[in-house]
Amino acid sequence: MNKRVVTAFYLMLNILFSIVIVLLNKWLYVHTDFPNVTLSMIHFLITFVGLIICEKFDVFCIKDVAIKEMLWIAMTFCGFVVLTNLSLAYNTIGTYQVAKMLTMPCVIILQIMFYKKHCSILVKLTLIPIILGVIVNFYYDIQFNIVGTIYATMGVFVTSLYQVMLNSKQKEFDMDPMQLLYYQAPLSAILLVFVIPFLEPVEQTFAKSWSPLDLIMVVLSGVVAFFVNLTSYWIIGKTSPLTYNMVGHSKFCLLLLGGSLIFHETLAINQVIGITLTLVGIILYAQVKMKDFQIVTTEEEEKKPLHKV
């Protein structure tokens, strides 16, 4: 099959799965009040089963690493999934999606603070419309609530911490994201087993008579979450950083539309301005980073020794 056709197919799958997982989770929170942390644990277990199947079909190979080395990253993985799901449960889809955009400046700040990395003035300037856009959207959100804002803020910080740690561990152990996820998913599920009794009414969860539709939606949510990861890693590995970023922009816009149509979430004109500011900042950031990436690649190519024919 033509490479472009395969790439386009995976891009469409990733967009579809990414939108469906958010809408599915929002449906579960709105219509069933399914326990958030329990849902995250189910996602981790289904992801682990999916990875075992992928390994059997040689999609990736397992790389040995000490479990204790993966404990901190598994804990932050737990935190980012649970907190972003809580943000989705307490905020509108629009606000949830816009808040996630703060991850980008937060990652840059953490890298500067802990890894002494530097970024260009242009990169820093692109963060201004992103941050302003998020602030404007939150301020004018008609469904604004303190709890949702706290979860969104904590989610951004822990997600940023997870991404920085993930990048560090990949380099340290020379592992790709799927090899890391193979350890993260089951470890995170085990950690949540001990946490759930303190955060959620376990007896009520088991005692409640869930309808077949509720249970199907829970399992479907876990399966879709796994395919989001699978297609994301394929795109990152097979296409350019710019392509992956542009896919993110389309998901951003389509999710706002989905939230408006399915859950009747209205957007004030000032929220539209905030969202537009955020989206402009993201696109500018992607363009600047792509140019930096091309410059670095060109410099590396020029440094390579010429081979005599």
Would you give an account of this structure?
With 309 residues, the protein is an all-alpha fold. The chain contains twelve helices and no strands. Helix 5 packs across helix 7. It starts with a helix and ends in a 6-residue tail after the last helix.
Average pLDDT level: 79
- Overall shape: it is globular
Q: What is the count of β-strands?
A: 0
Structural class call reads mainly alpha
Largest sheet: none
Draw up the topology in text.
Layout: H1 3-31, H2 36-56, H3 67-90, H4 93-100, H5 103-115, H6 121-140, H7 146-173, H8 177-199, H9 202-207, H10 212-238, H11 241-262, H12 269-303
Helix pairs in contact: 1-10, 1-11, 2-8, 2-10, 3-7, 3-8, 4-11, 5-7, 6-12, 11-12
